[in-house]
TrEMBL record:
TM region positions: none
Stored InterPro entries: CheY-like_superfamily, OmpR/PhoB-type_DNA-bd, Sig_transdc_resp-reg_receiver, WalR-like, WH-like_DNA-bd_sf
Record keywords, A-Z: DNA-binding, Phosphoprotein, Transcription, Transcription regulation, Two-component regulatory system
The species this protein was found in: Leptolyngbya foveolarum
Any one Gene Ontology BP term: regulation of DNA-templated transcription
Single annotated GO MF: transcription cis-regulatory region binding
The protein's name: DNA-binding response regulator
Length: 227
């Protein structure tokens, strides 16, 4: 049984699906609020301050991606899981770049959805250091600031999460499977190409002014943060 105190907001325009998810989450002990369009979802997120949001991508008016982008722009940090029929890698990247933490493709099994909810709530409640420094690269979890020396670096939400995981495990070789599990929360349908995409994004930003490479590839295995 999950912690009864955890509050979940479901933003879904299919009334039958929203009711089904609400009932299943309720059986697990969560306090559930439902909104049936993007604008109502934004207002509910402000009013009920949920611990996690399940957010449909395709909705009339504001799409789920736009809702997520607006939430992140206000500084909201709760986990957001997108629910969508879109499953192309470019769609996944678009959703993650908007600030989503996870991605569930419809139709989904309720057991899988519940497992992801538990994982994100557990991860969000874990405590650890607020700031990291590796060579000349600094990362602050509280302010979400990243710097290379004195140069500020703007990262998307998922780029930040990936760098956070790498810099918090310096000099450790991290496999692709482990990165997928810890940063994305699941195996991404067995497709690890998403990691290569984000490693490339990170390197472009971290090395924009000719700085040395800190995110190294261990061929056939994964990646490691080392100078």
């Amino acid at each position: 049984m999950a912690e009864a105190a955890a509050k979940i907001l479901v933003v879904e325009d299919e009334a039958q699906l929203a009711k089904f998810v609400q009932l299943e989450l309720g059986y697990e002990g969560y306090e559930v609020t439902v909104a049936n369009d993007g604008l109502s979802g934004l207002m509910a997120a402000r009013d009920c301050e949920p611990d996690l949001i399940l957010l449909d991508w395709m909705m009339p008016g504001l799409t789920g991606v736009e809702v997520c982008r607006r939430l992140r722009a206000t500084g909201a940090t709760m986990p957001v899981i997108l629910l969508t029929a879109k499953d192309g890698i470019e769609d996944r990247v678009a959703g993650l770049d908007a600030g989503a933490d996870d991605y569930v493709v419809k139709p989904f099994s309720i057991e899988e959805l519940l497992a992801r909810v538990r994982a994100h709530l557990r991860r969000n409640s874990s405590e650890g250091p607020e700031a990291f420094l590796f060579v000349d690269l600094s990362l602050n979890r509280q302010t979400r600031e990243v710097k290379r020396g004195d140069r500020a670096i703007e990262l998307t939400a998922k780029e930040f999460d990936l760098l956070d995981y790498l810099i918090s495990h310096p000099k450790q070789v991290l496999t692709r499977d482990r990165i997928l599990e810890e940063v994305w929360g699941y195996d991404f349908m067995g497709d690890s190409n998403i990691i290569e995409v984000y490693i490339r994004y990170l390197r472009l930003k971290l090395e924009a002014e000719g700085e040395s490479r800190l995110v190294q590839t261990v061929r056939g295995v994964g990646y490691v943060m080392r100078s």
